[in-house]
């Protein structure tokens, strides 16, 4: 996991992730060397998994919840710069 990463959690759907990545990973942004980590309690469906695979160098997905300290440790929430809840 990139030392510069953000954790996105909440209502994780193909549409919400697609819009977020389109804005966040836009080529006009200066700080594109940031990994995006999505944390959701259910595994992604095939459509969402395909989206993650298209952005595999910048995106990781973890099944879990922000209510579980073990899951927060897995996504290294202690060392993040930004946490987004969508």
Structural class: alpha/beta
How many distinct beta strands? Answer: 4
Sketch the major β-sheet.
4 strands, parallel
Give the rounded overall mean pLDDT. Answer: 84
Residue windows where pLDDT falls under 50 for at least 5 positions:
none
Please compute the radius of gyration using only Cα atoms: 12 Å
Q: Which term fits the overall shape?
A: globular
Key phrases:
30% helix, 86 residues, single chain, 4-stranded parallel beta sheet, 4 strands, 23% strand, alpha/beta, 3 helices
Write a compact overview of the structure shown.
This protein has 86 residues and is an alpha/beta fold.
Give your account of this protein's structure.
Strands 3-2-1-4 form a four-stranded parallel sheet, with no helix packed on it. It has three helices and four strands. It is globular. The protein has 86 residues and is an alpha/beta fold. The model has no long low-confidence stretch (mean pLDDT 84). It has one domain (5-17, 34-85). Keywords: Ion channel, Ion transport, Membrane, Potassium, Potassium channel, Potassium transport, Transmembrane, Transmembrane helix, Transport.
Topology:
Blueprint: E1 5-9, H1 14-24, E2 35-40, H2 46-54, E3 59-63, H3 69-74, E4 82-85
Parallel strand pairs: 1-2, 1-4, 2-3
